[in-house]
Write a structure and sequence with these properties.
alpha+beta, seven-stranded antiparallel sheet
């Protein structure tokens, strides 16, 4: 019998962007660009680097997400921990060249079964963030 605490949910969203991997990589790793589509941050693409995403505080949330860079594989993969409101998860970005652009896969793993609201909120949030990313990419050279 498996331990229920071992069973976590993973949210995965995939899109193909009509841009080269280099352009997507910049938008995922340069903090002024990250701030345009995701949140203000002090991110640096260095494994072990602790950083924060900062959002306007809301009722019951201080607006801070504590993170640590886990993987930096130039133009291929980027991963960091994502800790906020009792959620300890991992975000993994995977870039794959595709016809006409780049296939981007975003996975956020580590949602416990009792964190269904956080899972739904993350799904909603990432859809909005990726739409904003598309807008930012249109203006990046």
């Amino acid at each position: 019998m498996s331990n229920p605490t071992d069973e976590t949910l993973t949210l995965a969203i995939e899109r193909v962007f009509p841009h080269p991997p280099e352009k997507l990589w910049r938008a995922l790793t340069e903090n002024p660009l990250i701030a345009q589509w995701l949140m203000n941050n002090d991110f640096e693409p260095v494994v072990g680097r602790k950083f924060q995403f900062r959002h306007e505080p809301m009722p019951n949330w201080d607006g801070v997400i504590d993170c640590e860079v886990l993987i930096v594989d130039h133009l291929k993969q980027l991963s960091y921990s994502w800790g906020s409101l009792g959620l300890d998860s991992v975000v993994l970005w995977t870039l794959t060249p595709a016809e006409g652009g780049t296939h981007l896969r975003m996975e956020q793993s580590g949602f416990r079964p009792d964190q269904q609201a956080a899972y739904q909120g993350a799904n909603y949030g990432w859809q909005k963030f990726l739409a904003a990313l598309e807008q930012v990419l249109g203006g990046v050279r």
